[in-house]
Amino acid sequence: MKDLFAQILLTTDAIIVVYYGTYIASNMFLLVISLFEVRRILRRRGYEAENVSTVFTPKFSLLVPAYNEEVTIVESLMSLLRLDYPDVEIIVVNDGSKDRTVEVAREAFDFREAPVDVDAHLPTAKVRAMYVAPVPEWSKITRLVLIDKENGGKADALNAAINVAEGTFVSSMDADSLMLPQTLNRVIQPLLDDPHNLVACGIQVAASNGSIIKDGQLLSARLPNNWLGRIQVVEYMRSFTQSRTALGRLNMLLILSGVFAIFRRDLIMAIGGFLTKYQRTRAGQEYCGVGAHTVCEDMEIVIRLHRYLLDRGRRGKMILLPEPLAWTEVPEDMTSLGKQRSRWQRGLYECLLLHRDMFFKKRFGVVGWLAMPYQLLYEALTPMVELAGILLVPLAAVFGLLSWRVCGLLLLTAFLANVVVSCGSVVIAMWGEFSKSESRGPERLFEYEGKHIMATLLVAAVAENILYRQILLYWRLKGTWDFLRGRQGWDKFARKGFAATAAK
């Protein structure tokens, strides 16, 4: 029995070592791809004009679902009104808020009630009222609409906005996010370059905590004031700059952040819109079933788009621009952060389960053979493997099956690999690329103000592996347990608002 136990323990440890070896190798591979992709984008930016032509630009519809956003809605809408794009409409959807979101928005922008004239192609919760506001003379926005509806969730609010939208492209975004004026001008370029294949595009999201924001404008980009926020800045750089940028380049991207992403409206309508309990379209029910749901609608919609197109033999690209064109407030306490990460983990399982039929199917190509298995192995299962590594590798040393020296070396290797990936992501995000244009200085993704910014972030990249990562492991495991017992709900954390964040 003792020999059997020793054999099982050694075999398990070997599996863990192989797992981490492939995990490290894949992350290094993505890091190299993102390095070249970011450099290419920055070199190109040096030659691009800030404005785009009004002749060939498609119309955008910005969809802004809002639930209990009274502290952020005005600043967010002010930032959208400053978008420097020639043809864009804003559609705000109050999703049954329990606070004064509607009243605050109406008072700030003079919304007036209008007839509810909606072609409800996508079924949603009941729309109670619709309002239209005059657009300020200084804004390029063509239409500003507010929809007040009963609560149905973020996905349901997005569908309600799509029913009203007139744009060729629609964007999902959060009401508590802030957009830079040049956002749509930057995002439109790859769409114009590849109009037939590119069907969705996301951007890098940055933490607004600590930055100076006034009247919806980012006046000064600064790091968060506490180390919890700074570590999240590193996390966002690793997730967007390194991972999603590279996966988009390989056409393996399965998630575009709900903070901001754009989609072709005709395709979103064809697949039945965002997934809700009101789903009635053939494509939606065929892929997800009746009454299916997820708290990770931003991932599910991308996977369903891949599935819809590949089922029909069509090639559709989903990419991410690694430029921080959207800023959002991140949690500043561990309880709020834990709720967020637990929800993300639960949503990941939900999406993979909904689209499990895509695994290892020839017609789904790289998405079915690589992208989906990658998300399962190196995202969904990582918490369990990480916990097993923390417990079982030292246990093998306790029983004399491994020397303590080998045990320490394995744990140190895992620690250093994580540090290298995080530090590499920071360097890629902060490294300036000199263009040949004499009128412009070095181009970089992040333009933080202050001294020793990179040094601070590199320290945060090391510090996240000490205690912080282990605390998040608990919350990710909790998210796994919540999924297994069928728990639902959003667990939204309370935000302080841009004004409060900047005032610190």
How would you summarize the topology of this molecule?
Blueprint: H1 2-45, E1 60-66, H2 73-81, E2 88-95, H3 101-109, E3 112-114, E4 127-133, E5 143-149, H4 154-164, E6 169-173, E7 177-179, H5 183-193, E8 198-207, E9 212-214, E10 217-220, H6 227-249, E11 260-264, H7 265-270, H8 282-288, H9 297-311, E12 317-328, H10 334-354, H11 365-380, H12 382-398, H13 404-430, H14 453-484, H15 498-503
Helix pairs in contact: 1-6, 1-12, 1-13, 6-13, 6-14, 9-10, 10-11, 10-14, 12-13, 12-14, 13-14
Describe the structure.
By secondary structure, the chain is of the alpha/beta class. The strands form 2 sheets. It has a 10-stranded mixed β-sheet with strand order 3-4-5-2-1-6-11-8-12-7, with helices on both faces. The chain has a two-stranded antiparallel sheet with strand order 9-10. α10 runs antiparallel to α11 (365-380) and α13 crosses α14. Helices cover 50% and strands 15% of the residues. The chain is globular and about 75 Å long. The protein has a domain at 1-45 and 194-255 and 296-504. The model has no long low-confidence stretch (mean pLDDT 88). The longest helix has 44 residues, at 2-45.
From the structure above, extract its key features.
two-stranded antiparallel sheet, single chain, alpha/beta, ten-stranded mixed beta sheet, 15 helices, globular, 50% helix, 504 residues
Summarize the structure.
The chain has 504 residues and is an alpha/beta fold.
**Largest sheet composition:** 10 strands, mixed
Number of strands: 12
Strand order of the largest sheet: 3-4-5-2-1-6-11-8-12-7
Low-confidence stretches: none
The structural class is alpha/beta
Give the overall shape, derived from the CA principal axes: globular
H and E string: HEHEHEEEHEEHEEEHEHHHEHHHHHH
